[in-house]
């Protein structure tokens, strides 16, 4: 699973990415500061299973703060897109192609309207951020359409002559975008497209492209720069204007500042909380900055929004669940680490799927599984729930 961070230049994408991953990315206040896609590891936050057993876990990957487990997720930060990117404007199709591998998208917008359509700085609240939501939809839809349209006439004639199933042929053609045959079949039925593919129009292809984009690149809107006065009014307006999207109030700079302060032992901060605790010495400038964040972001919106955005992308858009491997009588590994692992599993995962995730031998020699929290024995088709602790019993 890969989460892509997208948006036009200079809206705080790289700051959001660094706040989520603490990766060393280049941040500058001008368009195209990011040229190549940055790759890093973010962390989703869940209630750790260790609290259920009254123990303290020892994560092998990620970390745990006050029984909140942070599980790693791969992220990419793609260079800024501008209107006309699918036609090669800005830095063009190169960066759309970087998004092929993404399973879900975080669209970072400048909710305070301090950047125009090209990503150039303008006076706050003078640019309408709703334009950015619309333009990215267009760019992504046209990207999918162009891939569909390339060599379409020959492609359609071949399908007509060979009698190959339409959904299978298009599924193969768009497999690089994570499109499946089942998705195509459902969309063709939903759009009531002509059974004879050779009669499909450009409008038909555009509608199909849009539907497939929505399924394969689900998106959440990170309304960044909420710390700028007046941004909250834009935020409420855009939520009403785009009811199909989930908007989260964000201040990437605030999250980054809090994480840096925590890293330097100035404060204690559990990422995503609505508060922090001062534990170290700070100068007047640092004190004022933290007071500002507390009053204008945490108290007002409940968090900086960064953690909420990433969690929503993984657990709501993609509907993944977190599963802990553990033994009914032993929660430790061979090194004595308590609940060292936590795996993110696709929706509708069953016990047998988790067995294969742990090791192919566990799956091939599966006997039964145990729901460790309830101490119940379950079969291979038992549906897993978020934050389950599961022991796999195999023949080897």
Q: Quaternary state, please? A: single chain
Task: Using the coordinates shown, work out and report the CATH topology of the largest domain.
Answer: Rossmann fold
Main sheet overview? 7 strands, mixed
The amount of helix comes to 25-40%
Q: What is the second-level CATH architecture of the largest domain?
A: 3-Layer(aba) Sandwich
- Per CATH, the superfamily of the largest domain is P-loop containing nucleotide triphosphate hydrolases
Q: Which structural class matches the secondary elements? A: alpha/beta
The whole-number mean of residue pLDDT values reads 90
Rg: 23 Å
- Count of DSSP strands: 14
Distance between the termini: 29 Å
Q: What is the CATH class of the largest domain?
A: Alpha Beta
- Write down the domain tally: 3
Spans of at least 5 consecutive residues whose pLDDT stays below 50 are: 24-35
Q: Provide the succession of SSEs.
A: EHEEEHEHHHHHEHEHEEHHEEHHEEE
- How many helices does DSSP assign? 13
- Given the C-alpha coordinates, what overall shape results? flat
β-sheet strand percentage? 15-25%
Question: Topology, please?
Answer:
Elements: E1 2-6, H1 13-21, E2 38-47, E3 63-65, E4 68-77, H2 93-97, E5 104-110, H3 130-149, H4 152-162, H5 166-173, H6 181-191, H7 202-216, E6 219-224, H8 231-241, E7 247-249, H9 252-263, E8 267-268, E9 277-278, H10 284-301, H11 306-317, E10 321-325, E11 343-345, H12 351-358, H13 360-364, E12 366-371, E13 376-378, E14 388-394
Parallel strand pairs: 1-4, 1-5, 5-6, 6-7, 10-14
Antiparallel strand pairs: 2-4, 3-4, 8-9, 10-11, 12-13, 12-14
Q: What does this protein structure show overall?
A:
Helix content is 37%, strand content 18%. With 396 residues, it is an alpha/beta fold. It folds into three domains: 2-37 and 78-127 and 218-315, P-loop containing nucleotide triphosphate hydrolases (Rossmann fold), CATH 3.40.50; 151-215, Helicase, Ruva Protein, domain 3 (Orthogonal Bundle), CATH 1.10.8; 321-394, Ubiquitin-like (UB roll) (Roll). α5 crosses α6. The longest helix has 20 residues, at 130-149. It starts with a strand and ends with a strand.
